[in-house]
Amino acid sequence: MPEFIPVANPQAQFxxxxxxxxxxxxxxxxxGRYILGEEVARFEEEFASFLGANFCIGVASGTDALIxxxxxxxxxxxDEVVTVSHSAVATVAAIDLAGAIPVFADIExxxxxxxxxxxxxxxSDKTRAILPVHIYGQPAAMDQILAVARRFNxxxxxxxxxxxxxxxDGRKAGTWGDAAAFSFYPTKNLGALxxxxxxxxxxxxxxxxxxxxxxxxxxERYVSSVPGMNSRLDEIQAAILRVKLPFLSQDNGRxxxxxxxxxxxxxxxxxxxxxxxxxxxxxxxLYVVECGRRKSLQDHLQKAGVGTACxxxxxxxxxxxxxxxxxxxxxxxxxxxxxxxxxxxxxxxxLTDAEVEHISDTLRKWNGRT
Length: 370
Description:
It contains 12 helices and 15 strands.
């Protein structure tokens, strides 16, 4: 067992599948087509099929996926998009970069996702979309969010950067809204060896618009029919993702198995783990606990060689770039309370049984249990 167990370890997954990954890279290098070739086209088909969606469009990053999804849904300057402050800053950066205006809804304490009951109070005559985040791999309450969207005639763009393979009632995250954005950053449940992302949708019109926008607005090569950008998933990353995709469900199952062991270990302590929400299947991208004595718990784990992190150090509305300028910041009580207590523990399918047992033992000892 290593002296230190990190919170995330994408190199461990590369080591497990090094042979097939190198073969996939060599296949691309030999073929000589490096941008938007056969590997991207095949991955788009395979990932859409995995999700049960009609279309997948590979792009350069998860942030770009959000920007392009928003634009393809007709969201632009002056439009308000209701989202959450509890997310990676990319969620709000994308809304800004699309020219729209973010508005913050509070979270539910158990799901840690957008609280649907907060939405009606935030919708104005400028609101055009709702952007829920399936944070840590826990699906948001999409049935209720969809009901609000229909009531007010709003678009829904799902942020699925942490939710590859998550489900609600057997339906995959990313197939509920008008469009969804995925990230393939190396630490994700389905991670590349560099940046990458995808927009997923059932709408032929949205899919066609994203394909135009990702490559300068081209409908035919070198002819820009609409203003676009350069955001293309490259062939090498697509080939790597194709190697990893068949293992995603198995890997997610291992993540949930590890989470179950950790949940047992923190019983009878003052540590609260992720709640198991009926009807949902958590992708367990991150295993995030809550503890009123967070710094002490972090030190306890660190001394035992167990890495920790805070996802994230502060909510988006507390970040210097966004502080005091986004509507809804006065109604984020649950979000702000959560940020004083959250702590991420190691979570990836390559954790060995010995490492999982060591982390569990360390958690049990937090309250003197042996």
